[in-house]
Design a protein that fits this description.
The protein has 427 residues and is α/β, with parallel strands linked by helices. The protein has 14 helices and 19 strands.
Length: 427
């Protein structure tokens, strides 16, 4: 990189993928701001960083499309860098395929790149700039990276590596700093957050939650995403007893058929999953539960799909994220199993399951009519009405109110829609 003096260099981080990617982008933005760079939109930026995903082919395709778009963007001494899962998967192949790409950055390791930028632009650090990241009331915090499971459809272990947990004192300090910046909620993230273990033996996720919930000024703590093999009873007990930890569980089932689960190498049976839900609901009857389902996995027959459909109906999830299976090179399923369910059949199954879940979700929201619900206000909608979320993860519009972001209010639910509740403040 050749030097070119300019006292006001700017950057833009483009992000696709999971919440952990969002948290990584926030971390990178903080480091660039601390180095004296200023954040702006893509058109005005000197440095563009793409934080990428490769869990599904559609995500990869969006990254490639963005790289093609940036060919005309790259003029003068502008810089394009790429990080995230696609960078881990493809490495130097990306710079060969896209000559406009200057660097592929290891996930979370940005210091060398930032030093190169400082040398390139000969930039002297000025006054400290505001921290980047989510400027609203909710902040993401990565507590564990990587995954030790080897689900046959998942590329995460290859691109994110094995599990690496961060120390409880460091995480508490980070969450406390977020609260000082204005956060009223922190969301603890991990590809498998239930696998969190303090590296010095201070405990697992339940122990971390107990420490974080004590932070003065913090009103809520969420965590995602869980794995049925690693969710411990103690975690549910902490959720049930806490006034800060939210009563929301994101627990992917992926399939409601044991034969498909074995082929996916998920490590549990449908009966195991049901037992977790039963135990959780016994402790927290108002618990909000979200799940993930893959339809059309190799070898999934109509009978197997109908087993999944029945499980979705029986459990009654609040939210179901449904995806059609698509083979990912580098995974066992992508490399070894035949993608034998026709695309049209996958589409039929996904549409059928979404229709089933829509009815379930409608019933779930109607059940809140006439009840009082606690809401953390996050902002205002397009009509200027305050909105936020309940502790169970429900989106709630606060009618006839001027409640400010960050405030915690109580709402009497008088309207219920499939994706939203609404009502006035209680007296």
């Amino acid at each position: 990189m050749t030097a070119a003096r300019n006292p006001s260099r700017t950057f833009h981080v483009w992000t696709i993928g999971c919440q952990m990617n969002v948290a990584d982008s926030e971390n990178l933005s903080r480091k660039l701001l601390a180095a004296g760079f200023q954040e702006t939109d893509l058109e005005r930026a000197d440095v563009a960083v793409l934080n990428t995903c490769c869990v599904r082919q559609a995500s990869e395709d969006k990254v490639y499309s963005k790289l093609h778009e940036l060919r005309d963007w790259k003029t003068g001494d502008r810089v394009i860098a790429l990080t995230g899962c696609l960078g881990s998967k493809e490495g130097d192949n990306l710079t060969k395929r896209f000559p406009q790409l200057d660097a592929v950055l290891p996930i979370g390791r940005y210091e060398g790149f930032i030093s190169d930028l400082e040398a390139r632009y000969d930039y002297s650090q000025g006054e400290p700039l505001p921290a980047a990241g989510r400027t609203g009331v909710s902040h993401y915090v990565n507590v564990i990276e990587g995954c030790n499971h080897n689900c046959t459809f998942c590329i995460v272990p290859r691109v994110r590596g094995r599990e690496r947990s961060f120390a409880i004192p460091d995480l508490v300090q980070r969450c406390r700093a977020d609260v000082q910046e204005g956060a009223r909620e922190v969301v603890l993230l991990g590809q498998n957050v239930d696998a969190y273990r303090d590296p010095e033996g201070r405990g697992g996720l339940a122990a971390l939650l107990r420490e974080v919930e004590r932070i003065e000024g913090l009103r809520r703590v969420r965590f995602m995403t869980s794995h049925p093999r690693d969710l411990e009873p103690e975690l549910l007990e902490v959720m049930a007893a806490s006034g800060v930890v939210c009563r929301e569980l994101q627990l992917p089932i992926q399939s409601g058929d044991d034969r498909v689960l074995r082929r996916m190498a998920r490590g549990y049976l449908v009966s195991d999953y049901r037992s977790i839900i039963e135990r959780a609901r016994a402790l927290m009857p108002d618990l909000g539960i979200a799940t993930d389902v893959i339809v059309g996995f190799p070898g999934e027959t109509e009978e197997m799909y109908l087993s999944t459909r029945r499980v979705v109906e029986e459990i009654g999830f609040d939210v179901v994220h449904v995806a059609m299976y698509s083979p990912r090179p580098g995974t066992h399923a992508g490399d070894k199993l035949v993608d034998d369910v026709p695309q049209e059949e996958k589409k039929r199954r996904i549409n059928d399951l979404l229709a089933v879940q829509k009815q379930i979700a409608a019933g779930k929201t109607v059940a809140w009519l006439g009840r009082e619900i606690e809401v953390l206000v996050e902002g205002a909608d397009e009509l200027g009405r305050p909105y936020g979320r309940s502790r169970q993860g429900k989106r709630v519009v606060v009618k006839r109110s001027l409640a400010k972001p960050g405030s915690v209010v109580r709402v009497m639910v008088e309207e219920a829609f499939p994706g939203q509740l609404a009502g006035p403040l209680t007296a």
